[in-house]
Amino acid sequence: MVIVLKKDVTKKQVDHIVKKLKEIKLRPMVSRGVDRTVIGVIGDESRLRVQPIEAFPGVEKVMTVQTPYKMVSLENHNQPSVIKLGNGVEIGGNRIVIMAGPCTIETRKRTLDLAKIVKKAGATVLRGGAFKPRTSPYDFQGLGETGLKYLAEARKLTGLPVVTELMNLRDLPLFEKYADIIQIGARNMQNFDLLKELGKTRKPVLLKRGMANTIQDFLMAAEYIYSHGNHSVILCERGIRTFETATRFTLDIAAVPVLKTKTHLPVVIDPSHPAGKRAFVPALTRAAVAAGADGIIVEVHDNPEEAVCDGPQALLPDQFESLMAELRLIANAIGRTI
Amino acid sequence: MVIVLKKDVTKKQVDHIVKKLKEIKLRPMVSRGVDRTVIGVIGDESRLRVQPIEAFPGVEKVMTVQTPYKMVSLENHNQPSVIKLGNGVEIGGNRIVIMAGPCTIETRKRTLDLAKIVKKAGATVLRGGAFKPRTSPYDFQGLGETGLKYLAEARKLTGLPVVTELMNLRDLPLFEKYADIIQIGARNMQNFDLLKELGKTRKPVLLKRGMANTIQDFLMAAEYIYSHGNHSVILCERGIRTFETATRFTLDIAAVPVLKTKTHLPVVIDPSHPAGKRAFVPALTRAAVAAGADGIIVEVHDNPEEAVCDGPQALLPDQFESLMAELRLIANAIGRTI
Amino acid sequence: MVIVLKKDVTKKQVDHIVKKLKEIKLRPMVSRGVDRTVIGVIGDESRLRVQPIEAFPGVEKVMTVQTPYKMVSLENHNQPSVIKLGNGVEIGGNRIVIMAGPCTIETRKRTLDLAKIVKKAGATVLRGGAFKPRTSPYDFQGLGETGLKYLAEARKLTGLPVVTELMNLRDLPLFEKYADIIQIGARNMQNFDLLKELGKTRKPVLLKRGMANTIQDFLMAAEYIYSHGNHSVILCERGIRTFETATRFTLDIAAVPVLKTKTHLPVVIDPSHPAGKRAFVPALTRAAVAAGADGIIVEVHDNPEEAVCDGPQALLPDQFESLMAELRLIANAIGRTI
Amino acid sequence: MVIVLKKDVTKKQVDHIVKKLKEIKLRPMVSRGVDRTVIGVIGDESRLRVQPIEAFPGVEKVMTVQTPYKMVSLENHNQPSVIKLGNGVEIGGNRIVIMAGPCTIETRKRTLDLAKIVKKAGATVLRGGAFKPRTSPYDFQGLGETGLKYLAEARKLTGLPVVTELMNLRDLPLFEKYADIIQIGARNMQNFDLLKELGKTRKPVLLKRGMANTIQDFLMAAEYIYSHGNHSVILCERGIRTFETATRFTLDIAAVPVLKTKTHLPVVIDPSHPAGKRAFVPALTRAAVAAGADGIIVEVHDNPEEAVCDGPQALLPDQFESLMAELRLIANAIGRTI
After folding, report:
1. Of the candidates B137, B228, B304, which has its C-beta nearest A55's C-beta?
2. What is the ipTM, given to two decimal places?
3. Would you say the pTM of this structure is higher than 0.90?
4. What is the homologous superfamily of the domain A74-333 according to CATH?
5. Residue A233, C-beta contacts closer than 8 angstroms, at least 6 positions apart
């Protein structure tokens, strides 16, 4: 850590800071430069959690050297984590995982039909929401447990493990029972109490990046789950909020290579939510695979006119099938498979 | 609502859309313009929740005329809502409410001391967190119920009602017992299950705007609480995420006049979190009062070096006192009091 | 166009608006809905440039149906534009164009060496800046005309046409003489006087998107050049400003499919500036090709330690060569060549 | 400066960096910490302009201690700069300067009328654009020199000095002749060649912050003008681009206190452009004065229906007059005058 002092810092203030640092077993080294005095600090920066140096008189700013996340960091675990699902699907290995299905579970029949459709096209995980976070209280809020049961039935029928979104602690037992991967939505990425509880389950968690959260926030949220005991965390970039309105969100495609230099956790891309419109989804999906994502989670619907949610951004079955063919070739181009 | 059709829309597609609109009791009027055909639609737009017109073939975009929030809208309730707290304090009236106190409840003594300090300077509500949403799992997470008890004791001592943050459903009974206003943090603004439960309590809720949420998202979140039965909702702007890093967040000061044209709910500003540094807090607080905010929620600490959280942005007691003197004059300048 | 009126609009205000619309030869149709009265307007919306309806009493908002850009719109020119450079290189056709070279022209020898290096790896255009827009007045500002001469010499040596940045009107004659493509930087994207002058030259222009500009702003800037007579405009996405700081800018990869639905102009991606770091460049470049970009403009340097500008983000020659091999396969995967 | 090295940095890489630093007369001090080796560097950081340490092998990141701007920094010039206009008006002193007038100069009569109106209400500078930066090439581009002449006539009539926008170098002589303050628009804030030329004139420059530019970018742009010889630079915050669309731009009100801790230059706020709508302008203007701005530049129009530009955001004369009364009281509340 480096503490940059104010230009008019007094000797007394410097001494006070140095004394406090020593008290918490850090090793300060004061250097007086042309413009500024700075204090370099050797030792475990996390000791500063209890001593807010930035609040001390004479301090201009504090620059940290260490990352605030530890367990999810690539530095502390130098091999990519591979998350194994029950039925042989692995996330984070050489093979790219395609998760597909409707935004929302609507009826039993459609759920089973879509499961068959996406399986046939090559998906290895079925997605679908039974509890829906909706911006408006007047929108359809999901089928709840009934939806989870349809998903479980679709899994039985097709062998596809299912990923589905959990919205609150109370429903966790249901997800332990029915889900293969518990999805945490962007709006809950910093619901810290929920993250702690997820640390206690052994179900893999697909954690979506919050729409206003930096990569560092994202890794800290993953650290919450990981440090509370659950090491099966999958990161999912799904677009951030920017000034651009031509798309629903701005897909931060660079999140893939950035995360790959910082963490051992697998990285998945959701191309549907940032696109907002079907026409943009294939390009974003291809880009995600080319950028090095370990997986894709994409919306597919056979009759978007009847979709209760996000119809405009769902791929049609035909489109999904053609896209899969392109994705296989792109995966090969970078030495991977689908 | 206006449906803009694609340039190459077919007659069959238009007829199909018109038919569907009539089925849900809306009145479509097709007009063929120079460049485009558009369909104007008369009727209650909310019927479209079950019919996603944007997903229909031939549709370019759908432009809505009505606001998606109803009960919190100024159009539906033409007088400002005034929220009454037990001890005579009112939020949303002519008098501007000052809520002040530490970021986090630390010790019993400090809590009582700070309550006396802020009361003396003119605050009418005491703020302080017992459950803390922290970005890092390794940071201090709050005193929990013990903290709530200290707050209750401070209330007894000073008469100041207390506002404090709730992080999850499970703790709601504690807040029913100890808090006067339940604060919902920015990271929980779209925790919809929590919002629904808050609709069932009768405690006033101070709802903070999410850091990536538009004014419309904000009003929809308030609508969740309001439509579930709790009409005592206070909106709080606390800064949004932008590219600027000189401050912790960018205070959207225009949120005050914008909200005042859209809703009857009171609007409060938190100048501390966007500032991030003590030096910027007085200017933001003065701006908030001048812009027409109904209240301020600001951090004050008598020894920021020992603050376990957000020390750098807490005002010192002296600063707070001087600031209060300025705020009173500014309030008078716009015909209000403090 | 649709004019949404305020809830309390008076008959007199409506009549006044209708009268004005008729005066400028538009056809208004008033419809009274449940909540609101709206006026649908048939006719050329551009007539409203002289009549700011939004400023009229009683108007809540004006929603436009037509795009404000015309000549660059896909609706008005249904085939992709292909820009031909002198030496057989085409931008916008099936073959993806790779533009590569140093950020800044430094010495004659390095310029010639790098030209040979990138040509050997498969680049078909040479990039390099002679006039540099630098954030600090104390940074190196470029070699000026000398740099342009080195580029011309490199073109003679390798046959590669050159793309290089123009910063102001005064230097246009130099660029007419030395450049094959005139690059306009992000910071000049809305330098409207410059855009107008570029409309008068016949050199192709590579227009970079401003870091805070929407897709619509971008197309309006292209319209400036196009409507003033120069139809050889190439659009270049290079990252936008967002809250994320892990990368220098956030590459808006969705700009590729979005622009492809709106304009006939070719779309190029610059992966170097958004990356900011060499390690992220290959992933972004692969994503760009997979997303459907017509070209790439990427920085390559053989000794980044000595680069006077942007050394950290330049690819090394070896990296560039390996990347080219991957790009060829990805291009094939989507039916294109490099 | 502090250089953070990669975890796997080799001794050879460290030695290489140290050697280079010594060659450019900087004093490196290597410290090996728990996790990381860092190199503290004493000396003038600007020497690093020619040696991009970030591009060196083994370097993770470089953290600078010094600000990159010098002459405009408060550290190098500890007193606020006061810019004197010919007729006794001073910007940056205790008295807050109100600049008001139409967005665009339309007719001679209206210009003279509005000059009288704003003067009567208490404005001390007249604003108005003769050359207009318009997003669309089809929009009215301004009256040009004729507009400047009308402004000069209005100055003669009222004694108000005039501020008006310059868009390119070519027109500088006209502005030397007619303008009292040369305004540089947000879109030209990083038109570096223009900034250099402005450094050679002696006319005060009102520099607007670019809509995607940080405070640091803003100060660097001011440094361009200042370091080239013109010390009469006035900074103007006018809103930044964010995801919020309820206003045209998001006014960064914190820019006032932030700039006041970093620079001696005066700070002015434009409340009209961020508001986008008349109804929001008074609140933003009051906030600006309360936050400590040295001046306001606001649009006033007596018939917004006929305004060729930005009619919806112009204050009516009556509104402006009432607002001025409030502003005077707010100024007094913080010990200033208007």
Report:
1. B304
2. 0.95
3. yes
4. Aldolase class I (3.20.20.70)
5. A72, A81, A83, A204, A205, A207, A222, A225, A226, A265
